[in-house]
Amino acid sequence: MATRLVQIHMKAGDDAAVGRFWAQALGWGVSSEGPGVTNLEPEGFVYPDPAAVCIDVVRDPKPKTVKNRVHVDLATTSTAHQADLVARLQGLGATPADLGQGDVPWTVLADPEGNEFCVLEPREIYRDTGPIAAVVVDCADPRAMARFWGEAMDWTLHKVTDDQAVLRSAKGVGPYLEFFRTPDVKTVWNRVHLDLRPYPGDDQPAEVARLRALGATDIDIGQGDVPWTVLADPEGNEFCVLTPL
Questions:
Q1: 3-state helix, strand, coil in the chain (%, to 5)
Q2: 10 close to 135: Cβ distance less than 8 angstroms
Q3: Which residues is 231 bridged to in the sheet?
Q4: N or C: which end of the chain has fewer CB within 10 A?
Q5: What's the pLDDT tens digit per position in 98-111?
Q6: What is the pLDDT of residues 198-209, one digit of tens each?
């Protein structure tokens, strides 16, 4: 059995407005599975497919209070493309964000509700990822995250050091999942988290039990009676195990 990363879940006070921003930023389409939920995926995309990690923007009235521990990095193909993309995103409502990054070749921005993201300088590794180069998660121990997430999903571990762990779909397509060591301590539940989905024919409760055996723990974020299961990884990062599809 195995799971795969199919989407990121992003809280927003105004899901429609934040959804429009990200749809325009990525060149993706917009749909909705119900009130308060804005779904984003590439045009013509057949969900789920490792070629893209989709985004669900979900309405939540609670305001953002700390830096997100999960963010996306956007890919560019040239320095001119990077500059043009930054300008276009600011025209859409993004604002510069100072996270103490100093003099770096990438640009840190925040979306209209303050969700941080990076516009990377061109890098060969991200030439074929699509608009999202990587989904990035802050952590204290990248090696421990590599062990857990490498077993939790059927993605391939490409790199692991004391400072970084890098995974990607075993099919070699779509964005990377990267864990970076940071000194920040997690203090609140993550407004942006990962959603995993078992494969068709797999058993969701059995998959959840397997993840618990790997070190995941049950967590209550007020989800109530829902068909998915909310867990936390060994560093407390919330994630959801959806029904097989």
A1: 20, 35, 45
A2: no
A3: 218, 239
A4: C
A5: 999 999 999 999 99
A6: 999 999 999 999
